[in-house]
Write a structure and sequence with these properties.
Elements lengths: L1 H10 L6 H12 L8 H10 L4 H25 L1 H11 L3 H11 L3 H14 L4 H10 L4 H26 L4 H29 L2
Helix pairs in contact: 2-3, 2-4, 3-4, 3-9, 4-5, 4-8, 4-9, 7-8, 7-9, 7-10
């Protein structure tokens, strides 16, 4: 199923309505969808590099709005909607681990939001729902989401405009891994500090 979703998402890049689909995918990725918006963003930006920053802006705005939807699902409809979504994607156990670790410690959740926005670690939908469940301040959440998602899409746009197709393999395979490793280390250090500093 994941492969079919991936292939379908890739096929949207060639359509005239690609920008609309980019906004839709970026929105639902942040709340309920499994395939990242990068899958659509990369071929679009490579095909029309002069529009890469425009695409980055569209993806950022839609992703932040989707994050707000994820926050609302966690805050207002956790049992009815958010939990079934997490269970469908086999993310419920991961979610419960983070929930038990974080409780109401916003600073750790902020860190997770930034690393998730930059490197999909953990998946962005898990973090947005978690932010709603623990009642994270919505204004702080929105600002953090704008910074994290904006930084990711603008970095991708800059890399693709500067280096073009040759950088694509690095972006798809290595960039996420590099940022992910750094993010995992940062999250682990922060959690360890919180647990043992008191």
């Amino acid at each position: 199923m994941l492969r079919r979703l991936y292939d379908w998402t890739m096929s949207l890049a060639a359509r005239k309505s690609a920008e609309v689909w980019l906004a839709v995918i970026a929105f639902v990725e942040s709340s309920v969808f499994l395939v990242p918006a990068d899958v659509l963003f990369l071929p679009m930006a490579l095909a029309k590099p002069e529009r890469s920053y425009r695409y980055a802006l569209i993806a950022t705005v839609a992703s932040v709005l989707g994050g707000i939807a994820g926050w609302a699902l966690g805050h207002y409809a956790y049992e009815a909607v958010a939990r079934p979504v997490l269970e469908f994607y086999n993310k419920f156990e991961d979610f419960e681990q983070w929930r038990n670790t974080i409780h109401d410690q916003w600073e750790i959740l902020l860190l997770l939001l930034v690393t998730s926005g930059l490197a999909h670690l953990p998946p962005i939908k898990v973090v947005t729902i978690l932010a709603g469940v623990i009642n994270m301040n919505l204004g702080v959440f929105i600002i953090s989401a704008v910074v994290a998602r904006g930084a990711r899409f603008l970095l991708l746009a800059w890399l693709l405009r500067r280096y073009g197709e040759p950088i694509r393999h690095f972006v798809e395979k290595r960039l996420g891994q590099i940022v992910g490793v750094g993010a995992a280390a940062l999250i682990s250090l922060t959690i360890a500090y919180k647990l043992f500093a008191h």
